[in-house]
Amino acid sequence: MNFYDFQIVFQEVPGEISLCFYITGCPLSCDGCHSPFLWNKDKGDELKLSLYTSLLEKYQAIASCVVFMGGEWEQGTLIDYLKIAQSHGFKTCLYTGQDWIPKSIANHLDYVKLGPWVAEKGGLDQITTNQQFIDLKTKTNINHLFLKPQYHD
Ligand code: SF4
Q1: What pLDDT sits at residue 28?
Q2: What are the Cα distances from residue 97, in Å, to 32, 58, 69, 152?
Q3: Which of 5, 12, 35 to mutate to test the pocket of ligand 1 (most atoms within 8 A of CB)?
Q4: In angstroms, what is the span from residue 151 Cα to ligand 1's centroid?
Q5: pLDDT value at position 148?
Q6: Which end of the chain is more exposed for a tag (fewer CB within 10 A), N or C?
Q7: 29 lines ligand 1 (CB under 6 A)
Q8: Are the beta carbons of 130 and 31 closer than 8 angstroms?
Q9: pLDDT tens, 52-61?
Q10: Is residue 98 within 6 Å of ligand 1 at its C-beta?
């Protein structure tokens, strides 16, 4: 499983400081994709177990969640890495462009973002979006936590 980038992010999971891994090999080719550099699975570097665990340990004290941007196409490795994150005390989240994920992956997630990018519908911060952000522990859609406040005169 190769990753293109690693970042500490604050908005991808409401209420969590997250360690975010951008996994290459996305097969979905959404029209207008903002991250086409994630399509080629040979791009980036292998997310070696030693690097992954060292990052989890390094940021364990300040971050609370691990997010994978993709990677569901390498199900076995993804599940192993989700389990490792959980064993280090992190919550887990997957951003996928698919409308569903197998239970074998969902069983190791606290949150999932479902749905492809559709430019005219917008992302999670738009009320028109086709995407869904689900809290899997409560089985509720929490898209409303991404909406920007609207101010009126
Ligand atoms: S799922 Fe995300 S990365 Fe993959 S093609 Fe769609 S927008 Fe791009």
Answers
A1: 93
A2: 13, 29, 9, 34
A3: 35
A4: 31
A5: 77
A6: C
A7: yes
A8: no
A9: 999 999 999 9
A10: no
